[in-house]
Design brief:
- By secondary structure, the protein is an alpha/beta fold.
- The chain folds into three domains: about 180 residues, P-loop containing nucleotide triphosphate hydrolases (Rossmann fold), CATH 3.40.50.300; about 35 residues; about 110 residues, Up-down Bundle (Zinc Finger, Delta Prime, domain 3), CATH 1.20.272.
- The chain is about 50% helix and about 5% strand.
- Helix 7 links the parallel strand 3 and strand 4.
- The longest helix has 20 residues.
- The radius of gyration is 23 Å and the shape is elongated.
- It starts with 6 loop residues before the first helix and ends with a helix.
- It is an enzyme of class 2 (transferase).
């Protein structure tokens, strides 16, 4: 099933059924359910007795195979690190590397979609349908394609095999090759209305859903994850330090946050800076409305030029956030820089 806020997207998408594109690019904010939507769409395309709405019947042999993760005309291609999300192994993605990885018990799963996976996919596309219908390929997230894999996929998209539909899902279209984008039918997935998202979060038993939804940028799945985030005490500590403005203790931040992933802390910091700017220019924060008073105080104290310069610094740090840097030193430098925004 799709999420309640996706019914409109689903209805509009059915207009394409008469002339279904060979490649569909579903894109939108992270945390709104694009992957589940794409999986439901794939099942609907493979279903042998679809409903009038285009949704799968859930009863036919094709639907049962899909639910069990072994439909012969379906492939899901994801990075190794995300294999658990789709429940379908990508053929050829591990066998070829077994010898190379032998004995490497601590090998970190790849976060990229590699060329070996795309090559295995091309073999799948070259075989006829087992059930006489469509063959469906799901790629998630499309921005995880490395350069070699993207170029290999591009050749297939330029000369698409008959009867094959590519469903590509992305939260960062800006990271895709323009040539790949140009060969897909783009389909923007909309953010849910706050009332709909809050009602869904309440049904999941989430407390204070409005605040969590705001912090998640309106993405309900991210808000749900925040509700059970084991790092929430450290997130609260970080926000308290940021709210202190010129009194922020950079070294305490480095000490307490050093075991956290750098991208996680950078995310908190960037959202706070965005709200500082929003408070300064529009008088209304987006991500942390419950911290409006602290944001207003910090916005008054901050030097505008220093704030703009610091935001660029944080953005540059984002570009190397996954590099094996010393997290404690990174955080100390970042929070010293934040404190300097308020220097007179």
């Amino acid at each position: 099933m799709i999420y309640p806020w996706q019914t409109d997207d689903w209805s509009r998408l059915q207009q394409l059924r008469a002339h279904w594109p060979h490649a569909l690019l579903l894109h939108g904010e992270a945390g709104i359910g694009k992957l589940k939507f794409a999986q439901h769409l794939a099942q609907g395309l493979l279903c042998e007795a679809p409903q009038a709405s285009g949704e799968p019947c859930g009863q036919c042999a094709a639907c049962r195979w899909f639910s069990q993760g072994n439909h012969p005309d379906y492939r899901a291609v994801v990075p190794e690190a995300l294999a658990g999300l789709v429940g379908v192994s990508d053929p050829g993605s591990t066998d070829e590397k077994a010898d190379a990885d032998e004995g490497k018990k601590t090998r970190v799963p790849s976060k990229e979609i590699k060329i070996e996976q795309v090559r295995a996919l091309l073999d799948f596309c070259g075989v006829g349908s087992h059930r006489g219908g469509l063959r469906v390929v799901l790629l998630y997230p499309a921005e995880a394609l490395n350069i070699a894999a993207a170029n290999a996929l591009l050749k297939t998209l330029e000369e698409p095999p008959s009867g094959v539909v590519f469903l590509m899902v992305s939260a960062r279209v800006d990271r895709l090759l323009p040539t790949i984008i140009s060969r897909c039918r783009q389909w923007p997935m909309s953010l849910p209305q706050p009332a709909s998202a809050i009602a869904w979060l309440e049904a999941q038993g989430v407390g204070d859903p409005a605040a969590l939804l705001a912090e998640a940028g309106g993405a309900p799945l991210n808000a749900l994850a925040l509700a059970s985030d084991e790092n929430r005490p450290l997130r609260d500590f970080t926000l308290a330090q940021l709210a202190a403005g010129p009194n922020c203790d950079a070294f305490a931040c480095g000490e307490n946050l050093q075991k956290l992933p750098v991208p996680t802390v950078l995310g908190w910091l960037q959202r706070w800076l965005y709200d500082l700017l929003a408070q300064r220019t529009a008088g209304r924060p987006r991500y942390f409305p419950n911290a409006a008073k602290a944001l207003e105080r910090c916005a008054r104290q901050a030097d505008a030029a220093a704030l703009a310069s610091y935001m660029k610094t944080v953005t540059r740090q984002r570009a190397v956030e996954n590099h094996p840097l010393n997290a404690r030193l990174v955080f100390e430098e970042l929070f010293i820089g934040y404190r300097d925004v308020f220097a007179t």
